[in-house]
Structure formats: C-alpha cells, structure tokens
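Lab notebook, bench 4. The sequencing result for the construct came back, and we need a structural model before the next group meeting so we can plan mutations. Quick request posted to the team channel:

Model the 3D structure of this chain.
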Amino acid sequence: QADTFDPATIDKELGWAAAIGMNTMRVYLHDLPWQQDAAGYRKRIDQFLGIAAKHGIRPMLVLFDSCWDPFPALGKQRAP
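Done. Here's the predicted structure in token form:
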C-alpha cells in the first residue's frame, strides 16, 4: 500500500538478508491492495523486485494470498 511502502527499509533489510547468505525470499501479495490500486500495486512490486535484484535476491511471489490473516483489511497492518 502506498502509505506504508518503505523502499529505504526494504533496501536495508534485504541488504541484511543478503549479508547472511539469503538469495531467495518468498513474498506474499494480498489481493486487497490490488483491488484498491492495481497500477500502484504493480509499480511497488516492480520497485521491490529492483531492490531485491540489487542484493542478488530472487523473490518467489505468492499472488493474492489472504490466508495468513483471518481479518484482512486495507491500511496499516498490525505488528507480527
């Protein structure tokens, strides 16, 4: 979602992952942001893929996954 997408933090955290040897990462993509703003969603996915490529990480995208949260909603998500 545009209001919580943070490329600087993504870059930092993927850098940490690469530094410990990670080269593949599963990324779950929910359907609600796609329904809200499909063009923006694609743009943010492209940004993420570019950052991952910079760190030599190959993402495995899981499309439209909503099974991890029984109460999905748009907006800022609760902490893990």
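Residues 31 and 57 are 23 Å apart (CA to CA).
Will bring this to the meeting.
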